[in-house]
From TrEMBL:
Cofactor: [2Fe-2S] cluster
Domain Rieske: 47-141
Matching CDD domains: Rieske
One matching Pfam family: Rieske
InterPro entries from the UniProt entry: Rieske_2Fe-2S, Rieske_2Fe-2S_sf, Rieske_Fe-S_prot, Rieske_Fe-S_prot_C
A GO CC annotation given for this chain: membrane
PANTHER family reported in the protein's UniProt record: CYTOCHROME B-C1 COMPLEX SUBUNIT RIESKE, MITOCHONDRIAL
TM stretches of this protein: 12-33
The organism of origin for this protein: Malonomonas rubra DSM 5091
GO function term, MF aspect, one: 2 iron, 2 sulfur cluster binding
Keywords: 2Fe-2S, Disulfide bond, Iron, Iron-sulfur, Membrane, Metal-binding, Transmembrane, Transmembrane helix
Protein name: Cytochrome b6-f complex iron-sulfur subunit
Amino acid sequence: MDDATPKERRTFLTVILGGVGAVVAAVAGWPLFRYLSPIDKGSAEDLVRVARQEVAVGGAHFFSYQGRPAVLLQPSAGEFLALSAVCTHLGCIVKWVDDKQEFLCPCHGGRFSPAGQVLGGPPPTALESYPVSLDGEDILVG
């Protein structure tokens, strides 16, 4: 019944273990590759248009800017701020806490002010800000 020689078994096991090892190496190496590869920032002419009524006073509106999560705030009537929604600690997406009027990173408890400044926790730097301009009833980010 079993016609395989010990050499054939060793060869079979070597091929199988090599394949499994290659898959494990690829899975482990992908995050390192993404970390080291440059981020595509898009062209300088990329603008995101958001209607003013989508951003309540004291509220936040999340959107995508140049392929990354971003947030638009209206801290007071007619004043708008656009920030990256990616925590500067480990890249988690921050959440807006309405009753505290601050951002909270759900991964490690980093806290940011509405202007993006670090209030507490492990984040090393403030959230990146983006230029904002008004065009009629629209807000332009970028």
